[in-house]
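Hi V.,

You were right to ask for the full record rather than a summary. Here it is.
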Amino acid sequence: MDRFRLAVFNTQPPHLYFGGVERRIMETAMRLCTEVEVTIYCGTKAGFRVATSVDGVNIVPLHSTDKVYPLDNWCFNKSLTKEANKIKADVYEGHAVSGYGFPRKLKEQGGNKPFVHVVHGVLADEYEQAKKRGHQSIRGKIVNYFMHYLANLEEQTAKNASLIVTISKYSLQKIQQYYDIDPSKVRIVPNGVDTEKFKPAPDGKAARNLFGIGQEPCVLFVGSLIARKGLPFLVEAAKKIVKEKASTKFLIVGEGPLKEALTTTLSKENLLGNFKFLGNLKEETLPAIYNCADVFVLPSIQEGQGIVLLEAQASGLPVVAFDVGGVNEAVRNGETGLLVERGKTDELADAMLKMLTDSALRQRMGANGRRFVADNFTWDLCAQRMLQVYHEAMSEQH
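Predicted structure:
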């Protein structure tokens, strides 16, 4: 059987950005190349200007800005709509609000090719969660205004799509709640992890040496330094942890607009020496950082699923997180990690301290997590489930 053609739309070039969305796009595309001719259309960000091929996946730039979201997204979608008649495929796939005008353009051109809309974190839910934070800075209010605007676009895209894919039961529930979408139109395909890349190291000492870390207790966070990731809660919890374990080191991987405010707060609290900001790590370096830590923490106040939770568990790390969104689908509370009520910093601190002081518990939960992820959350499983979705979408159009 000939390969069918899949066109994927995403504002960020997925081979140059390593957020959850971009990782999902590249990991699934690379695994489907023998059966699908995949072309990814993305914005001209991070200097991406010339079409390329990565591991059999075609990646084509369409003009956008390299400025802040959502301006870059708006420019990308404008370029995409303008080029719509040149983009030929058997299935089209848009992520979040990338490609929101494309289904309408297809209909205008008289085409009947399916459009699959992949919803990661439901933007309307992110907007509602942000409103609960109370006092917001001017920047925060502007971001929230655009989040509301983008949520409306996501709803419009979902309603115009042939099929919708989302990453968790929680996200399906929120799609129904906020967008009034018939659940029969939605397929749940969780994110995955490469269990050959993310795995426990026989000896974490070499990894620690790589990052200049000694043998002190280590807590790891990986993610963007944005409000949704809840880092101020980690800072509060760190106060209690450091009182009991003064040498504890908190490794922070990622960049974002909150970095300056975080470092200022840590300086005032005399905690800056306990935190090590590592910035964005290259993809080939990322697995090693998980082998430096004793515990992984994700204090997000809203999370559709959390790929980093899967990476941590695949690496044999026990996790501590707030029980929000789809987190309790990605972590088995009491078996692979400990989940606490959102915003309870004392409980967050106690859960991390419990892990740091009980090596047998860490080892047991780490081993459980590795098995749990290998059985349920791999990119191979994700790719095969997406292939089923594409075939279903094509069969329904005929």
